[in-house]
Amino acid sequence: MLTIAVSKGRIFEEALPLLEAAGITPVDDPKTCRKLILRTTREDVQLVIIRATDVPTFVEYGAADLGIAGKDVLLEHGAESLYEPLDLNIARCRLMTAAHKNAPPLSGRRLRVATKYVKIAQRYFANQGIQAEIIKLYGSMELAPLVGLADCIVDLVETGNTLKANDLEPRDLIMHISSRLVVNKAAMKMKNRAIAELLNQFEATLATQG
Ligand code: PRT
Ligand code: MG
């Protein structure tokens, strides 16, 4: 049996065609079904539905053999203990700094930065030579600059609509983000044949998408 960890929402939606191309269709729809373990049309494959940020943990501990997670989540988690064989090119966005549209440039001064990406932000500002005090938030980052909690935020941007709706604007690109297939290291050895076959199927599908 192969267990694949995925989060509900955009990653699941965008991964579905890839999974289906490999013959993996969930028997229940996670949007309406409350089951956390989903059987699929492949007897030998099941999905576990978890929070996006928990995917690396499940795969690291071998509770799932494989997982699909955003590069943002993997970098923040520290994914040295996982294999990351494939960029699935889904759930694409950009990790950026953002500030109030009237705020002065973010360079040349000490900054307070609100984000859920504490590690990534620390590394980024250190590399820029900017002194930054990072404030960890779990959501609604956009609010922080509006109420004086922070000078800027580090968050994901797709269309930019969320920033715009809150009088913020994107400033600097930190990195492009997409979702990756990750594999437990022991499973890669123990279940090599099944996992290699699945990787080949995903790769073949991705190749047809250019
Ligand atoms: O909500 P939960 O805690 O369960 O987890 P999550 O919010 O991380 O899950 P989900 O499904 O929202 O995101 C999972 C992954 O999708 C992220 O880790 C990213 O790799 C990827 N992804 C791609 C995004 C976006 N695009 C995205 N736009 N994740 C979040 N957003 C949010 C962003 O944080 C901001 O609030 O959408 C808003 C910005 O969108 P625009 O279009 O207004 O710019
Ligand atoms: Mg979310």
From TrEMBL:
<dbReference type="InterPro" id="IPR018198">
    <property type="entry name" value="ATP_PRibTrfase_CS"/>
</dbReference>
<comment type="pathway">
    <text>Amino-acid biosynthesis; L-histidine biosynthesis; L-histidine from 5-phospho-alpha-D-ribose 1-diphosphate: step 1/9.</text>
</comment>
<dbReference type="Pfam" id="PF01634">
    <property type="entry name" value="HisG"/>
</dbReference>
<dbReference type="InterPro" id="IPR013820">
    <property type="entry name" value="ATP_PRibTrfase_cat"/>
</dbReference>
<keyword id="KW-0368">Histidine biosynthesis</keyword>
<dbReference type="InterPro" id="IPR024893">
    <property type="entry name" value="ATP_PRibTrfase_HisG_short"/>
</dbReference>
<dbReference type="GO" id="GO:0005524">
    <property type="term" value="F:ATP binding"/>
</dbReference>
<dbReference type="GO" id="GO:0003879">
    <property type="term" value="F:ATP phosphoribosyltransferase activity"/>
</dbReference>
<keyword id="KW-0547">Nucleotide-binding</keyword>
<keyword id="KW-0067">ATP-binding</keyword>
<keyword id="KW-0328">Glycosyltransferase</keyword>
<comment type="subunit">
    <text>Heteromultimer composed of HisG and HisZ subunits.</text>
</comment>
<comment type="similarity">
    <text>Belongs to the ATP phosphoribosyltransferase family. Short subfamily.</text>
</comment>
<keyword id="KW-0963">Cytoplasm</keyword>
<comment type="function">
    <text>Catalyzes the condensation of ATP and 5-phosphoribose 1-diphosphate to form N'-(5'-phosphoribosyl)-ATP (PR-ATP). Has a crucial role in the pathway because the rate of histidine biosynthesis seems to be controlled primarily by regulation of HisG enzymatic activity.</text>
</comment>
<dbReference type="GO" id="GO:0005737">
    <property type="term" value="C:cytoplasm"/>
</dbReference>
<feature type="domain" description="ATP phosphoribosyltransferase catalytic">
    <location>
        <begin position="51"/>
        <end position="203"/>
    </location>
</feature>
<keyword id="KW-0028">Amino-acid biosynthesis</keyword>
<dbReference type="GO" id="GO:0000105">
    <property type="term" value="P:L-histidine biosynthetic process"/>
</dbReference>
<dbReference type="InterPro" id="IPR001348">
    <property type="entry name" value="ATP_PRibTrfase_HisG"/>
</dbReference>
<protein>
    <recommendedName>
        <fullName>ATP phosphoribosyltransferase</fullName>
        <ecNumber>2.4.2.17</ecNumber>
    </recommendedName>
</protein>
<keyword id="KW-0808">Transferase</keyword>
